[in-house]
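Protocol step 4 of 5: obtain the predicted structure for the target chain.
Materials: sequence only (see below). No template structures provided, no constraints applied. The aim of this step is simply to have a reference model before the mutagenesis design in step 5. Sequence pasted as it appears in the construct record:
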Amino acid sequence: MSVRGSGRALARMLAPFCILITGVALVWVGYDAGGWTRGVLLLAGVTCVVLTGPLLQPAVRRWRQARLRRSPGLTRRLDRQLEGAAEQLAHELGVLWDREMKLRRLQHPAPLPVRWVNAEAFGDHWMNIRTNDGRDAPLDLSGSSALNEVYARNPSGRLLILGQAGAGKSVLALRFAYERLRAAEPSDRVPVLFPMASWDPVTQDLESWAARRLAADHPALAGRAVSGKTVAAELLRAGRLLPVLDGFDEMSAATRHHALRRLRASLGEADPFLLTSRVDEYEAAVRQADIVLPATAAVRVEPLSVQESVDYLRRTTRKLVVGRTVATKWDPVFSRLREHPRDLHVLKLRNVLMTPLMTGLARITYSDTSRDPAELLDHRRFPTREAIEDHLLDQLVPAVTDHSEQTTRWLAFLAQRLNSLETQDLAWWRLSPAAPRVARAVGATLALGAATALLRWQVDQPTSWFGSEMRVWVPFGVLCLLSVADVAFGSCAPLPRYIPLTEPARMARPVLVVVAVLGGWLLYDWLSDFLLFQVIFAVGSLGFSVGHWILRRKRPRPKAGNQQTVREFLDDPRDRTSGAATRGPERTLREDRLATLVSLGLVNILAEGSAVLRAAWLVIFAGITPMFFSTRPGTWPITFVVMLVALAVLGTSSSAWCGFGVAKAWLWGAGKLPWNVLGLLAEAHRLGVLRQSGAAYQFRHSRLQERLAALAGDQPAPARVPSNSSTDEDFRSALSFISGCVITVGSIAMWWTIGLGQLNAALGPYGEAGPYKAVAPACELVDREALRKVVPDPHGEQSGEDYGGFDVRQCSWNVGTATAGDPSVEISVTLHRPTSALTAVQEAEKNFDDRVGLGLRFVVPEHTTYPTGLGDEAISVVEYSEDRPRVVTSLRLENLLLTISYEVSGIKWGDTQGYARSTRITQDLARTVVWKLSAAVPQPGVSP
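Step 4 output (structure tokens):
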């Protein structure tokens, strides 16, 4: 990409940031502005911030992509990141599949002999498949041992495995992935199993679905790469993975032809894959889509021969030695099969045992128990082939567990739940579709309810909306109710989150950032008036930035010679229990809980979508609005704590862990599942009833799931219907758009209402007006003769602004001609009005206390005095200024606050006599102002 193209991407990225900074600047300037311009500036600033927020992430992503394409250093950094992620993924999958092979006893005493032959009718032209020489001669891809070796003979790297139900396609795909992973070099593609039943090709392309699936099964891959995309998406884009797409036939019949089109459209020139499916379902999808997968070879799994099944069952059964005769309890069955090959019941039993699934179930039911397999010869008990298969499926759970009836009931409920969800993935975060919605709704209700109560407490004033008088928190509460509905129904199901444990300090980073920002802001607010602190702050920031850059440059990089192959890793017993390589459903749950608690829910707010972000914005709105327009000064610490707790509740309730907790409690209370759900699933997995697929479990076979689901309802399992996820997605999109517009416009309108001071003063039980209803211009309050003694030839500048709740009048005098000392006097009079919570005098008292508390932080403490006879309360201080001391006298007179300051160049630091003289000047001027103000207000009982 050219520099010009990168410059355009940089410009497109900087434009939203510039608008955002402009919005922040407008809010900053508008806060100090007066008159009608204050509301306009605040409205414009908030609008800029709200509207540019959604544009920031796409802009940064485009700039990162452009920068990545023209920066060799970033490209190398991305390659190193993906190399490490691929190696970690290979280690995790290797340990997972090694455990699966042992639990399912696929290698003991030896794998079932699965044979396959070429399926010419379903493959592409051989000249397309043979990308190495372009010849049209067919390749012999038949075999019966290692599919990995046969796959290596296919130049295109695209293989389709077809077979009947229970033919062993999924086991063959697992063995292929495991063997290829053990033999892989560090630079080879990592094989990854993707169960296609969880893919909805109508709404998702293949790469997006695969990336989301990877992120759910391996949460570390949900992190961001250098490019800005997730690591999972970058691994797929960079061609570092070999997709093994298992169970095409288990997708909805209405979406299979869409899946074929999506798969064909996603294939690049040399993208390999392996796909498994039943024959009839794949043939129907090909006819409906009228396409063929390009450069794809096809093989068909052959059924077992009777002799192969007999040999396997005999080898897996304990020997019975009587004298010199060695037999097994299967011998009567084998003799019947051999001696009566034309018997109808024998033919049914032979057909059953010709599938690897049923042969494996027969081993578990009879070879591993004390039961007599001769009962299979009872034609009255098992009149059909389906009856024999159902019997073997029904006996799986009783054969492997002691509490068979209770366990069967629990597993049947789970199977029925998976059928209703049209999936085979038994993921803990999707245990109940309604539970995460309930958790989010409750969390959003609590958080937004606290925000509404906070706004009512801090800004409890009436306003007019659509011609009706109401409190300002009422329309805010309506927005919060809409946001609760948006969060509950407009959000997708949450996925588990992950915080790397390789650096323990990184787990607490979000909390440390919040604490550091808050503490830094308080420290800066305390010391920002000192020039020395500003210099130290600037130098420290520069030093930190330079040091951080140096450390990043000096960070040691992994050496190529230290890489370990996957086979060496699997063969090394020290690494078998590595934390990075044993991630499963239980650990995924722990990691999601840890990520939620450590980040105070922030990780879920940032990752769960726009609905949760809008709810968080309303909480923040309720927290920052009182900082500008509160009727209760000095309560911002309480406001900040409530806002932080509300955000934590909102984020925690949006986590997958919280949704799982609600689902577990509900199903346990209803008697559907035990409290330790994951313990039940782990035990079922250990016993071979379930299999593990990433962070989710699946039933051993779809036939077992359907059979258990039928037992749960005492009726056949319901037929799968076309997925309605596209309708749900359209509903969520519409709800998100409507709620986003309403919340954005509503919050801006509320800010406009509050910021322009359109709140009507409604007197509450304490809303008593003060004795002063108005105040004269500040320049007219000071005696001119007394002023000339202090400032020769005074030249005054007057200003003032009515802010609704209070009215400020100011005046400053400087000498009109050059005079030694350059003295200046400034007077400020603030008139306070009542609120619904406080009287006008109480408002003045609170503001006087706040002003005194703030002023005492920047004064010479030993020269602070509290004069008497000046109003109701008064204080005189010597403040630090830029180049000379400034003496200030502040007092309160009923509902008025008066401040008089005096500066003169003749006073030096430490001049005690100068401090005392200046203090007397400010107090004398204050007495003249108090006298004039008191004379303007009639005393009680005295006629004017």
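Step 4 remarks: The first strand starts at residue 115 and ends at 118. Residues 206 and 263 are 6 Å apart (CA to CA).
Proceed to step 5.
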